[in-house]
Amino acid sequence: MRFLVDAADIEEIRRAFETYPLSGVTTNPSSVARQGLELPRLLPAIREVIGADAELHVQVTASDAPRMVRDAYSLSELAGPHVFIKVPVTREGIKAMRQLVDEGFAVTATSVFAANQAFLAGAAGVAYVAPYVNRLDEAGGDGETMVRDIATAFATEGLVTVILAASFRDVAQVERCCLAGAGACTLPPALLDGLVAHPLTEDAVARFERDWVARFGSPALLER
Ligand code: G3P
Which residues are tagged catalytic? Predict the structure, then answer.
């Protein structure tokens, strides 16, 4: 299971990378717009924080295939190595994905709300498909089932395309999607923290410390 941080804020990305075993960062036009920096400043700054080996997924903003391909070349220059070009699974998007894959780009098909969209993107040879789990749940669908259906079909076909599940409201959704066959999840920093938080873990740690201090007078292992 791989985890990425879904954020465009440099300090949030830095803190997440300091703590968690992350494979990369995903941004989208909304998160980039929220943090305010222009891409020519933002992407090199993110790259500096995450290092050359981490994946950086950045999204085109054009809506027609020729301009999506042009966006991909610009993003690729700014984001350095291991850039994944996020392209929404529209009709023009699928067309752009085919050209980008032919031209050697690693592509992440994004804004996936139906297994059929993922199947077409997989057939186009993308590296990742990104189903939006919570947004589908909130629209009355079933994000977990979408992930499971895509995973089943990709496995049957022997496709190497990885499911990068995105859009989560809570950690229960994350756990269910991991079990349903997502190979990776991209999460905002607060949800990464949520994955590790458990009241019984906190209670166990507090009890260990209490017992230790009661016997040795200080929580230190050796200095007593
Ligand atoms: O990367 C896609 C993701 O950011 C969408 O998440 O929480 O806005 O539905 P959300």
Answer: 86
| Closest-CA residue to 115 (of 94, 137, 89) | 89
Task: Write the pLDDT tens digit of every residue in 73-119.
Answer: 999 999 989 999 999 999 999 999 999 999 999 999 999 999 999 99
CA of 197 to the centre of ligand 1 (A): 22
Domain 2-197: what homologous superfamily? Aldolase class I (3.20.20.70)
Contact 178, 150 (CB under 8 A): no
Cα 161 from Cα 158, distance rounded (Å): 9
Give residue limits of the domains in the chain: 2-197
Query: Among 5, 35, 167, which residue has the most ligand 1 atoms within 8 Å of its CB, making it the best to mutate?
Result: 167
